[in-house]
């Protein structure tokens, strides 16, 4: 049954509440823990058992961090890395141009700097070189360096790795591996085909972190000490959230601890980035994914490919400030380009039909730096895997995003093995591809078949899932802080969302560029303020503005609003429906 009877809200969605089993489990958790029902409902939905509550709310890295040696080639990778450090060999780091690649490269640069060593950081240009190692770049690096470390890339790059003649290569990656691995000293990747898959949820920066843990162990065995790795978790947290890695197991502990490190404002690059983004509070996982991450990515998308990695790696505050300001400018440019491509892609996808297992669009001259973001928007809008491709000179370069339960990376990789793509790969939730323009239609048709076999396209617009109902007066700062203990929230662990039932709208106002500020109450003294971003001119915003005394069911996420030294509870409104519907 639809929650509160809402079969179709003002945004066209069906509301779904917690199931009977979740509600029973929540009641049991309340009885055994004494925690608020709202928090216990979230824990029950996340599958936390009564005897796991305490450890889940306070995840410790020492309890959850896997043994690095459980990953194949890990000891060999750390040994070769330390040999280069010990013998003062020349080291190059070949990093992907996204946040995960940038943070991975920055982790190694930071560690080496603290050990009195330097490294060359190389990030390929998205347009001129494309994703991953390429033969000219690897050959050039090998001519000048003894060791090349490929981070967040390399697992499928057989020819490029082979071109690195005269240098050793170590790969630290997390993308899906093929049947064979490149000829290199070590390839550490939890998504190699001969791995168990137990650590498949790690991003590349987490793999790099584990390699540094193993390096630290080998140093201690030799009677030496390495840098403080806990202070580097701000970078791992940023990568984990920005790369949409599932927030489960050790990833929760990495992000939780990393956010604490970030709040200390010790890394010049992240401090400068937070300041240009006007982030005036301690960061949350939301800020990593939607505020800081996009700015780090902006250089690789529309500007200078290595700018984000260099920002994260620098220890010079003045240099960091200059780079952060440039990234802010690139991010504004990215938004403009994205808006144009998004409008064209949506129009094309609608013409093709939005009810199949795959939504896709391709256009001449679409900027390859924004196709991934546009694919994300189409995926969110349609609740289906989406692929967006930019065409140029008879070839398409695209990016895809998937929905929970549908492995897009494996399907893209299969297309490549079948010869329908020039190349392609990725992981479950995201993938990249290159395709000849005359193979575009058959490739997308085949991809749709593969995705449909996994269940893609069976649902309509995504249901709005709710954890329960709250009275306006129950939404307090204290409750929000308790709910945050169940976080961090993100991929694989959606944040709590509540319904405020039968609310009376007492105040509405447009703020900023089309945002709706409002307040509501329950008629018996409880009051709650809220904001709906970008909603003022839409159906949702206008319904609340012109309420005419009607009451509404409101749905959204609770957050703490800090303004003028005052902290108050606020509802970030996502949807609403007339209470008498």
Counting copies of identical and different chains, the oligomeric state is single chain
Q: Mean pLDDT, rounded to whole units? A: 94
The structure class reads alpha/beta
Uncertain spans = none
- The CATH topology label of the largest domain is inorganic pyrophosphatase (n-terminal core)
Helix content: 40-55%
Q: How big is the Rg? A: 24 Å
Helix tally? 20
| Whole-number total of structural domains | 3
Distance between the amino and carboxyl termini:
15 Å
Q: How are strands sequenced across the largest beta sheet? A: 3-2-4-5-6
Q: CATH architecture of the largest domain, please?
A: Alpha-Beta Complex
The percent range for strand residues is 15-25%
Tell me about the biggest sheet? 5 strands, parallel
Q: What does the overall shape look like?
A: globular
CATH class of the largest domain: Alpha Beta
Report the count of strand segments: 18
Topology:
Layout (H helix, E strand, L loop, with lengths): L14 E2 L3 H14 L3 H9 L7 H5 L3 H4 L9 H13 L4 E5 L3 H16 L5 E3 L12 H10 L2 E5 L6 H5 L5 E5 L13 E3 L15 H18 L11 H10 L7 H14 L4 H9 L8 H18 L4 H7 L3 H36 L6 E6 L6 H12 L3 E7 L2 E7 L6 H10 L5 E4 L3 E7 L3 H14 L10 E2 L2 E3 L6 H8 L13 E14 L3 E7 L5 E6 L6 H7 L5 E13 L2 E13 L3
Parallel strand pairs: 1-12, 2-3, 2-4, 4-5, 5-6, 7-8, 13-14, 16-18
Antiparallel strand pairs: 8-9, 9-11, 10-11, 14-15, 14-17, 15-16, 17-18
Helix pairs in contact: 1-2, 5-9, 6-9, 6-10, 6-14, 9-10, 10-11, 10-13, 12-15, 13-14, 13-15, 14-15, 15-16, 17-18
């Amino acid at each position: 049954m639809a929650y509160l009877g809402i079969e179709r809200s003002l945004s066209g969605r069906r509301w779904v509440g917690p199931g009977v089993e979740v509600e029973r489990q929540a009641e049991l958790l309340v009885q055994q823990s004494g925690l608020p029902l709202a928090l216990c409902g979230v824990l029950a939905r996340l599958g936390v058992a009564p005897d796991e509550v305490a450890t889940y709310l306070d995840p410790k890295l020492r309890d959850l961090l896997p043994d690095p040696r459980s990953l194949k080639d890990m000891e060999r990778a750390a040994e070769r890395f330390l040999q280069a450090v010990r013998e003062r060999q020349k080291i190059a780091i070949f990093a992907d141009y996204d946040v995960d690649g940038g943070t991975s490269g920055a982790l190694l640069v930071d560690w080496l700097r603290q050990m009195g060593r330097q490294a060359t950081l190389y990030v390929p240009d998205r347009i001129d070189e494309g994703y991953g190692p390429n033969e000219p770049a690897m050959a050039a690096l090998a001519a000048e360096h003894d060791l090349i470390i490929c981070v967040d890339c390399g697992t499928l790059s057989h020819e490029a790795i082979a071109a690195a003649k005269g240098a050793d290569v170590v790969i630290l990656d997390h993308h899906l591996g093929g049947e064979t691995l490149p000829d290199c000293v070590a390839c550490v990747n939890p998504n190699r085909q001969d791995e168990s898959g137990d650590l498949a949820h790690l991003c590349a920066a987490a793999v790099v972190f584990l390699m540094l843990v193993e390096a630290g162990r080998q140093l201690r065995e030799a009677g030496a000490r390495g840098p403080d790795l806990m202070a580097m978790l701000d970078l791992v947290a940023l990568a984990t959230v920005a790369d949409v890695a599932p927030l489960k197991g050790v990833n929760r502990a990495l992000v939780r601890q990393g956010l604490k490190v970030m709040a200390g404002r010790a890394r010049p690059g992240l401090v400068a980035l937070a300041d240009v983004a006007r982030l005036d509070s301690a960061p949350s996982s939301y800020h990593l994914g939607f505020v800081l991450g996009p700015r780090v990515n902006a250089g690789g998308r529309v500007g200078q490919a290595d700018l984000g990695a260099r920002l994260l790696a620098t220890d010079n505050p003045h240099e960091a400030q200059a780079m952060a300001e440039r990234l802010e400018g690139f991010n504004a440019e990215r938004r403009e380009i994205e808006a144009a491509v998004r409008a064209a892609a949506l129009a094309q996808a609608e013409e093709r039909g939005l009810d199949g297992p795959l939504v896709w669009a391709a256009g001449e001259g679409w900027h390859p730096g924004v196709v991934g973001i546009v694919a994300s928007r189409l995926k969110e809008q349609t609740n289906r895997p989406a692929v967006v491709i930019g065409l140029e000179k008879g070839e398409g370069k695209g990016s895809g995003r998937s929905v929970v339960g549908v492995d897009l990376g494996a399907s893209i990789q299969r297309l490549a093995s079948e010869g329908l793509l020039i190349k392609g790969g990725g992981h479950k939730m995201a993938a990249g591809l290159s395709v000849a323009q005359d193979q575009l239609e058959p490739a997308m048709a085949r991809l749709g078949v593969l995705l449909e076999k996994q269940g893609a396209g069976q649902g309509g617009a995504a249901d709005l899932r709710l954890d329960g109902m709250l009275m306006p007066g129950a939404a307090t700062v204290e409750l929000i802080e308790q709910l945050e203990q169940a976080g961090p929230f993100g991929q694989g662990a959606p944040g709590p969302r509540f319904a405020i039932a039968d609310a009376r709208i007492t105040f509405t106002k447009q703020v900023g560029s089309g945002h709706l500020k409002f307040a509501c109450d329950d008629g018996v003294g409880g009051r709650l303020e809220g904001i709906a971003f970008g909603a003022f001119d839409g159906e949702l915003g206008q319904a609340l503005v012109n309420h005419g005394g009607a009451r509404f069911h409101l749905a959204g996420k609770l957050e703490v609003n800090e303004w003028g030294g005052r902290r108050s509870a606020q509802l970030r409104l996502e949807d609403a429906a007339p209470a008498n519907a």
